[in-house]
Design brief:
The protein has 4 domains: about 120 residues, Methane Monooxygenase Hydroxylase, Chain G, domain 1; about 190 residues, polyphosphate kinase like (2-Layer Sandwich); about 180 residues, 2-Layer Sandwich (Endonuclease, Chain A); about 170 residues, 2-Layer Sandwich (Endonuclease, Chain A). It is about 40% helix and about 25% strand.
């Protein structure tokens, strides 16, 4: 009966968020995050990796509320009659649907956590709850609280002189109903970020640990000596992080970095878009809802904990050997022998195209190439786009050294890279101090392109080395995200790259490149032109073929082109990890389209757009997803794969992923993602690439 009710609720949600072959973007994202949560329940994954997936699910949901729910919240205030261009839902209807689906996801997360707790206990780590402590454990925990937690607590009693404090974004608080001398007051408590999240209570056959929030639940009232505690509530507020970073281009005296610093400071104080509490029935919950002026529909009960990031390090409480057995086997990205043995990577790149497939290939050759360019006398200039960087970036160090060695270094650094703004501000200052020319994007377009342009001179001739990729110049994520990279000395691409940075510097988007497709002007028309080519082939009786891989598909113009291609008989295979606003397999509309999503050990991040068969195939790798924000509102690059050997390697990667029947989930005409049905031998594409 319960399962039937849940199925009916999900079916109702699917109908609410669908119109014909179109699916609402926000609902599709929630389905993607559900696939992440499924990995936390997939017992083919090692236990500690499943714990990480649960944490990732929660972090994803936090960002979704800050950004997407925040954006819809703003839209509902400013344009309540506006609708989604695919499903014609207003912001209010989307928000109502999101809250209903999210409530179901909270229940699933709670059940998943309860299951993982049991399995962790069996593996040797027992997570204690405040209400199950033995008298001896309670004394131990009290001592921990008094000596290691209480000194790191900030608390306040709210009265006429101390009105309600601001609940900061994603910070956990304890709220108390206090009484003294017949007066009722509110007490608020929060822990310093320096406080440990997990505390060891006792050792033995099993490590017994307790979370900070459980200690606060059990002993928090001790901080309010002299008061009687009549009630308690744990809470966390999520605030709108949809910052407006548009600027007036006529204001040339404005320092954009200062503008962004001020914007970042406001993020913690913007309006509340979600309230999480550990007891929705508590009278204190009503108090908080009134104080925050937030609709109860935006309030969610989470009895366990609001933040599951501690699960990333829970294996530290196990012996190293036992923890290792509960994780994925370690691996190191490969370096091809010809690159490892090359006396000079600059000389090698001038003579050979280089292909790197992260994380299976190491990022080191690219980093070492830049380090070599920093000191090579032939190198005149290095230009690079930066969106997200590692916390300790060797690439930034190489750029600084290049500048110190007299090279002209230009860095286009995107200060509006959401949640990386502070990091990018820091690196922009460091690069500027070294003498690099810093450009903060192009007007009100985000620069999301991934390109490095190196200009060299030997004798009177200029030569070029250009790197084009699908992912960030981030040494950390290159070990976790799948991305494709090409380093080439092709002259046309090299000249395009130089022109690209010149156009960025003068804020010019209207330019026709020889080889590159560049948004917002030529990328989308270029993609549509190649889809049209396949349509014409199919109409003429030939075989039209499209294979594409991306993170998300939301651009309606391109979706409609895919539908037109399907109706013409073009076979379309799409690998879409996240949002997909199109339903495949619908008779008479999308029956020739197949969509799969792969969520596995690595984050699928590469974008590839491939048109035609082996004889006339055209392939591009790109920084852009087929989303309106990428195709119309950002500066993105799609680079042609000119080397036939590299093209064949990338196509083989796509075919292997399309054959995945372990981690792949196929989107069916009813809007449901299901495991791939196959009689073939099990094939996990990511594991296959690790082995080969």
């Amino acid at each position: 009966m319960k399962e039937t009710k849940e199925q009916n609720a999900l079916e109702k949600a699917r109908r609410r968020f669908r119109r014909g072959i179109y699916v609402n973007r926000e609902y599709s994202w929630l389905l993607f995050n559900k696939r992440v949560l499924d990995q936390a329940n997939d017992k083919t994954n090692p236990l500690l990796e499943r714990c990480k997936f649960l944490s990732i699910f929660g972090s994803n949901l936090d960002e979704f509320f800050m950004v997407r729910v925040g954006s819809l919240y703003n839209e509902n205030l400013t344009d309540p009659s506006g609708t989604d261009n695919k499903t014609e839902l207003t912001a209010a209807k989307q928000l109502a649907g999101i809250m209903a689906v999210t409530r179901r996801l909270y229940a699933l997360r709670g059940a998943t956590y309860a299951s993982l707790k049991k399995q962790l206990s069996q593996a040797g780590v027992r997570l204690l709850s405040a209400d199950e402590l033995t008298p001896r454990q309670r004394e131990t925990c009290k001592a921990i609280f008094l000596s290691r937690v209480l000194p790191l607590l900030t608390m306040m009693v709210l009265d006429a002189k101390h009105p309600m404090m601001l609940f900061e974004n994603l910070k956990q608080y304890q709220l108390y109903d206090l009484e003294r001398d017949g007066r009722r007051m509110l007490g608020v408590m929060c822990a310093s970020p320096a406080a440990d999240r997990v505390y060891l209570v006792g050792e033995g056959k099993k490590a017994k640990v307790i979370l900070l929030e459980e200690l606060l639940k059990a002993f928090g009232p001790l901080a309010f000596s002299g008061y009687a505690v009549r009630g308690r509530l744990a809470l966390r507020v999520t605030r709108n992080a949809d910052l407006d970073t548009r600027v007036d281009d006529s204001d040339v005296e404005r320092d954009f970095s200062v503008f962004m610093k001020k914007k970042i400071e406001t993020r913690a104080k913007l309006g509340a878009v979600r309230l999480e509490v550990d007891d929705v029935a508590s009278p204190l919950c009503e108090v908080v809802l009134r104080l925050l002026k937030i609709d109860p529909a935006y309030c969610f009960e989470e009895p366990h904990c609001f933040d599951y990031k501690f699960l990333f390090s829970i294996g530290n409480f196990l012996p190293k050997e036992e923890a290792a057995a509960l994780r994925y086997p370690p691996f190191k990205g490969r370096v091809a022998p010809e690159l490892a043995e090359a006396p000079s990577l600059v000389d090698y790149a001038l003579q050979n195209n280089i292909f790197l497939s992260y994380p299976y290939d190491s990022m080191n050759p690219l980093v070492e190439l830049l380090e070599e360019c920093a000191k090579d006398r032939r190198v005149l200039s290095i230009s690079i786009t930066i969106y997200r960087l590692a916390s300790h970036s060797r690439i930034v160090d190489a750029l600084c050294r290049a500048c110190e060695n007299g090279k002209q270094v230009t860095v286009v650094i995107e200060l509006c890279a959401r949640f990386d703004e502070e990091s990018n501000l820091h690196y922009a200052g460091k690069l500027q101090e070294a003498g690099c020319t810093i450009i903060y994007g192009m007007g009100n377009y985000k620069v999301h392109s991934k390109i490095v342009s190196v200009v060299l001179k030997e004798g009177e001739e200029l030569s070029y080395i250009t790197h084009l990729g699908t992912g960030n110049y981030n040494e950390s994520t290159a070990k976790q995200y799948t991305d494709l990279n090409i380093i080439t000395a092709d002259r046309d691409i090299g000249e395009d790259a130089v022109a690209f940075f010149r156009n960025i510097s003068i804020c010019n988007v209207d330019f026709e490149y020889k080889r590159l497709l560049v948004a917002p002007e030529t990328l989308k028309p270029g993609i549509i032109r190649y889809i049209d080519r396949e349509i014409e082939k199919a109409k003429a009786g030939g075989e039209g073929r499209i294979v594409a891989k991306m993170n998300s598909l939301t651009d309606k113009a391109i979706i409609d082109k895919f539908v037109e291609a399907s109706c013409a008989g073009v076979r379309v295979d799409l690998i879409v990890r996240g949002i997909c606003c199109m339903i495949p397999g619908v008779t008479g509309e999308t029956e020739n389209i197949r969509v799969i999503s792969i969520v596995g050990r690595f984050l699928e991040h590469s974008r590839v757009y491939c048109f035609g068969g082996e004889e006339d195939r055209v392939m591009y790798i790109s920084s852009a997803d087929l989303m309106t924000r990428n195709t119309d509102k950002r500066v993105e690059i799609a680079a042609p794969v000119l080397d036939k050997g590299i093209e064949k390697r990338i196509y083989a990667i796509l075919q292997t992923m399309l054959a995945d029947n372990v981690k792949a989930r196929e989107l069916y005409p009813d809007g449901v993602y299901r495991p791939v049905e196959s009689l073939s031998e099990p094939l996990d594409a990511q594991q296959f690439f690790l082995r080969t």
